[in-house]
Amino acid sequence: MTGTDSAGNGAAELQTTMTALGKAARSAAAVLANASSEAKDKALREAATALRDRRAELLQANAQDVAAAEERDLRAALVDRLKLDDSRVAAMASGLEEVAAMADPIGTVVDQWERPNGLQISRVRTPLGVIGIIYESRPNVTADAGGLCLKSGNAAVLRGGSESFHSSGLIGACLHDGLRAAGLPEAAVQLLPTTDRAAVGVMLTMSDYIDIIVPRGGKGLIERVQNESKIPVIAHLDGICHVYVDGAADLEMARKIAVNAKMRRVSICGAAETLLVDKRVHNSHLEPIVHDLLEAGCEVRGDPAAQAIDPRVAQATEEDWETEYLDSIISVRVVDGVDGAIDHIGEHGSHHTDSIITEDAAVADHFLSKVDSAIVLWNASTQFADGGEFGMGAEIGISTGKLHARGPVGAEQLTSYKYVVRGDGQVRP
Amino acid sequence: MTGTDSAGNGAAELQTTMTALGKAARSAAAVLANASSEAKDKALREAATALRDRRAELLQANAQDVAAAEERDLRAALVDRLKLDDSRVAAMASGLEEVAAMADPIGTVVDQWERPNGLQISRVRTPLGVIGIIYESRPNVTADAGGLCLKSGNAAVLRGGSESFHSSGLIGACLHDGLRAAGLPEAAVQLLPTTDRAAVGVMLTMSDYIDIIVPRGGKGLIERVQNESKIPVIAHLDGICHVYVDGAADLEMARKIAVNAKMRRVSICGAAETLLVDKRVHNSHLEPIVHDLLEAGCEVRGDPAAQAIDPRVAQATEEDWETEYLDSIISVRVVDGVDGAIDHIGEHGSHHTDSIITEDAAVADHFLSKVDSAIVLWNASTQFADGGEFGMGAEIGISTGKLHARGPVGAEQLTSYKYVVRGDGQVRP
Fold first, then answer.
1. How do residues A311-333 score in pLDDT, each as one tens digit?
2. Global pTM value
3. Most CB contacts within 10 A, which of A308, A341, B26, B216?
4. What is the ipTM of this complex?
């Protein structure tokens, strides 16, 4: 995976390169589908070792990317996401080891039963095949995504952001070190050898070679992928997450969760964007929570009830209810009980993650069953919306769609299944 | 659901009609998602009763369709698929009752675990939303598909073949009788009110209102749907199914299964199209099996070894290995053991259903794990590839894709899931 750029490539040459890459991925997938758990886990552990051993080389490649980004005047937040240091490299390496330590999803019997005619039917987990992942600046996605695909017996075709080209290339080389050490084909994890944007367009048409596309990045990327792809897409759109403070909420718990859900990290998709408060506790709960948020440095935009609390609360517009701020801003609204909250979330939410704070179990159950989101929580922060926090080891994203995978996408979500039927000569009457 | 045709409709009018239908489906889906098992099962049983009570009316509507088909000189096989009689109506009604008697997939806890921080996570089955089904002449698909969608808490938008318009309309009316009796919205099952082919095109763009499209019919239909759809598609492509007679096969079992797999019904997707015989039993097994097939009225196209057996065996061309005959024709080839069979199936198969006949358990396990098909069988006929035979009550098709659903698509395959997380005040550190 050298850093050749396709500036000199014509469209035909790009197509040839991509087809060769697709064929190599398909062949590697066939090997990987039948690889032992031991071989796959060895590859993951050896890749982790390579990341640690080649840390100096990796930080040098990363410095090249960071310098180029600073030269191009990229936003500071973007440059920060791009930057690797000792602790980030260590986190990548231990992430791969955590994935190695998890149970192998492949070959697991998910379900089995016997038919009256004696046929023994079992449903067994299998890999999907080849997974294409298109992502932006964070180079660690190369390790996370490559590792999860490998664990689940799938070949990966990775297209990272052009700004992390050298860093990702070196992480890819470490994954190849691991694959080689385990006797598995290097083509199990391939990075596009070019930063040419046209390569993404070609990738999205390669339905003969890629079985599923997972875009990971901003809205623009995801919309482009969903519009152009000839391959099924598992995507995460908006994360407009809500915290609803019910009339039966414990005030201290509500304060703690509301501030954590919004402010722990504002840029992740599980960060709360809207706080809904039951009108029954409008007097007792709304004011302390709004003050906590203001004191934590959060901008608050509210309905008239919230505005009445503090002059610093700005007026929320209709647009605020449907905005994923990914910033220290929250919209606040008083609603008529749990059904008011359910209605607001149904109308304005994004089916991602929503939480209710209440001591009333019946009200909680009503919320948990009626809110149509990938993750619904009771008395816990929306910031737990994360594959690692769910115990999946890692994730390559959170799906807001309902097909195939919903919520955090870990190794198990990158699998399919087959039916294995054992008989003793049965024919169908 | 009256028989108005859209001959007079402009494109704008069609769009308006379809959007209204989509909105009604979305609203009905929200009600259905929270409907009790009792209500859904009552609707299914009452629909079965309506089918029986309105049998005369249904047969009359069907006679209208059949007369029109005969006038248009449709193929006899097509007219036969279209025709309803007392026993077919009875089968539809009891099919709905069987679906009613099955366990409700919705609300089932598929998995649950506790995190070290005390969060209780469970994965709970939910409906998908709105399912669009596009099918051809068999009017019974209206009952099967409508019933499975209802059971799984999904709204259905059905587009049957124009030739079964009146029959399907009446079956739809019976489903509405059931929904009304159970207090559920009629829009839970909607049939397109027009036979205009353009309506299919509009339907395939309605990604705001339809969550998944299931085409059921010939290759032409499925290719059109896959090419045009802006909505994810679960489809069944070819069913090029194989029977492999291993060197360690019991001859009598192999004869019985080979003939059943091919000849029981030649027009279903699980019918075998190719027989592979291990060269080790070329002398002992090949001849009796080929003679059985010839005697059963099957045309045999073989490689030189098969041709040497009987002058009636024609020469197989490369094309034969990749042809889904759906007719009394089979291709026959001698292969080099189980790996020869696995290679042939990998190269020429369609990932649908493949069977091995052998007394050697290790060889069987090798075949069952290496053949990458939705259904793999050991010592059983490929004709068991059917949701009913699997115990799913009914199916709306067999998926040859690996995403979301693979193999028979029954009620459970028409579901998604959500994560329900219960805490006691946890915030993320």
1. 999 999 999 999 999 899 999 99
2. 0.91
3. A341
4. 0.92
